[in-house]
Design a protein that fits this description.
Distance between the termini: 43 Å
Strand content: 15-25%
Number of helices: 14
Order of helices and strands: EEHEEHEHHEEHEHEHEEEHEHEHEHHHH
Helix content: 25-40%
Shape: globular
Oligomer: single chain
Length: 383
C-alpha cells in the first residue's frame, strides 16, 4: 500500500503492499473507503476522492507502511488441552479454547474467525462458552474483518477484557488501528502459511458439490485419520461430499504450491513476531520427533509467549506446559519466520484456471520440482 504523490489517502500501487486487514477502512472518519474484490477474489481499499479529507489516518494505521521490527518470543511451549473432546475438535492441541474460556469466565469477549451461512469466513465475537464452537478449527481463508476492530475498541473502552485472535497481519492491523495499548486486551495470532483466494475456495466447493446440495458441515482439519495425516470432511446433511486425506485434495495441493495466495503473503509484514501479539499459536509439527513417547497423533499446540502480559495470563491457567526451543519450533514451522515465495507458475494458474479448473493444479504439479505431492507428504506424514 502506498499513498499517491499529492495526498495522504490510501492508493494501491502494488498489490503486494496490502494485506487486507481493513484498518484503513475502519479508521476513516468520513467512511469513504470501500473494500471491493479484484479479479482474484481478494479485497483492496478504494477511496472515494470526492469525500476524502486527506486526514492521513488511513496511512497512519497501515501495517505495511508502518512495519515493526522482528521480536523473539520470551518462551515457547508444547501443550495440549486435557479435554479430549475439545482437542479432537481443534486443529492442533486445543489451546485456543483454554485461553478463550478463561477470558469469558472473567466476563470478557472473544473475537475469532468463523464460517458464515455461505461458507465464507468472517470475524465475529462471542461472550459465551458455547459461542466458541464456531471459532475452532482452521479455515484456510482470510476472514472478513468487518467492523470488529471498532467493536473490540468499544468493548475495551467499556472495561471488558477482550481476546482478539487472527492471522499475524490482522493482529498487527488491530494494534495499528487502536494506536494505544490496553491492559484489558489479549491478542493471539496464528502461524500462517498464507491466505488463499476466496474465489478459488468458492470454486472448490462448487466442484465437489456438483448436485448443488446445501452444505451443512465443513472440517478442514478432521482428525478421523489422525492429526499428522488430517482429512477434509464436507457434508450436505447426511450425505458426505468429500472425505479423504487433505493431502489428496486439489484445494490443499494448490494452497501448498502457493499459486493462489494473496500477493502480500509473498512478503508478509507481520512475520517473526512483528505482529506484537501477546501469544502465538501453531501446530507443533516436530513434537513427535522430540517426545515420541508422549505422541498420540491427536494434536499438539506450540505456544509462543511474546509479552509479559501473555506470560502472566498463561501462568493463571491450569495447563501443563512443556518447555520447547524456538529453534526446534522454527525447524518444523518455517512459516513463522519466512514468507512464501511467489511461484513462477502463479500467472499460469490464473490464466488457465477459468478454462481448466482444478486440473491446472495437476499440470503445475508435474512442472514443479519437487512435486507438490512430495512436499505435502514430507510436511505432514511418512505415508
Amino acid at each position: 500500500m502506498q499513498s499517491s504523490r499529492n495526498t495522504n489517502m490510501v492508493y494501491i500501487v502494488d498489490k503486494h503492499n496490502c494485506c487486507g486487514c481493513t484498518a484503513c477502512v475502519q479508521v476513516c472518519p468520513k467512511m469513504c473507503i470501500s473494500f471491493p474484490e479484484d479479479e482474484e477474489g481478494f479485497r483492496y481499499p478504494y477511496v472515494d476522492k470526492e469525500t476524502c479529507i486527506d486526514c492521513g489516518l488511513c496511512e497512519n494505521v497501515c501495517p505495511v507502511l508502518n512495519q515493526t521490527e522482528p521480536k523473539k518470543p520470551l518462551n515457547v511451549y508444547a501443550a495440549i488441552n486435557p479435554n479430549e473432546e475439545i482437542r479432537m475438535k481443534s486443529s492442533s492441541g486445543g489451546i485456543f479454547t483454554i485461553l478463550a474460556e478463561k477470558v469469558i469466565n472473567e466476563g470478557g469477549v472473544v473475537f475469532g474467525a468463523r464460517f458464515d451461512e455461505n461458507w465464507e469466513v468472517m470475524h465475529d465475537f462471542t461472550k459465551t462458552i458455547e459461542g466458541l464452537e464456531v471459532f475452532r478449527g482452521s479455515k484456510y481463508l482470510q476472514s472478513r474483518i468487518g467492523e470488529t476492530y471498532k467493536q473490540a475498541r468499544e468493548f475495551l473502552r467499556a472495561g471488558f477484557k477482550v481476546l482478539y485472535t487472527g492471522t499475524s497481519c490482522q493482529i498487527l492491523g488491530l494494534k495499528m488501528f487502536l494506536r494505544k495499548e490496553y491492559d484489558n486486551l489479549l491478542t493471539v495470532d496464528i502461524v500462517c502459511h498464507g491466505v488463499p483466494s476466496p474465489k478459488i475456495w468458492k470454486s472448490y466447493l462448487q466442484d465437489i458439490n456438483s448436485m448443488n446440495q446445501k452444505i451443512t458441515y465443513i472440517n478442514l482439519r478432521a482428525k478421523i485419520r489422525g492429526w499428522k495425516r488430517y482429512s477434509y470432511l464436507i457434508k450436505a446433511g447426511d450425505n458426505v461430499l468429500y472425505d479423504d486425506y487433505a493431502a489428496n485434495s486439489m484445494y490443499l495441493k494448490g494452497f501448498m504450491s502457493n499459486v493462489f495466495l494473496r500477493p502480500s503473503c509473498y512478503k508478509c509484514p507481520a512475520k517473526e513476531g512483528r505482529s506484537n501479539s501477546d501469544i502465538t499459536l501453531a501446530d507443533n509439527w516436530g513434537y513427535w520427533d522430540i517426545k515420541p513417547e508422549n505422541f498420540d497423533d491427536m494434536g499438539v499446540s506450540a505456544v509462543m509467549v511474546n509479552t509479559n502480559k501473555g506470560n502472566e495470563f498463561l501462568n493463571k491457567l491450569s495447563i501443563k506446559l512443556q518447555q520447547y526451543s524456538i529453534e526446534a519450533f522454527i525447524a518444523s514451522n518455517l512459516s513463522y519466520k519466512k514468507s512464501m515465495e511467489s511461484p513462477k507458475y502463479r500467472s499460469f494458474f490464473w490464466q488457465e484456471f477459468p478454462k481448466l479448473g482444478f486440473n491446472v493444479i495437476t499440470i503445475i504439479n508435474k512442472k514443479m520440482q519437487p512435486s507438490i505431492i512430495r512436499r505435502i507428504i514430507s510436511k505432514f506424514s511418512d505415508f
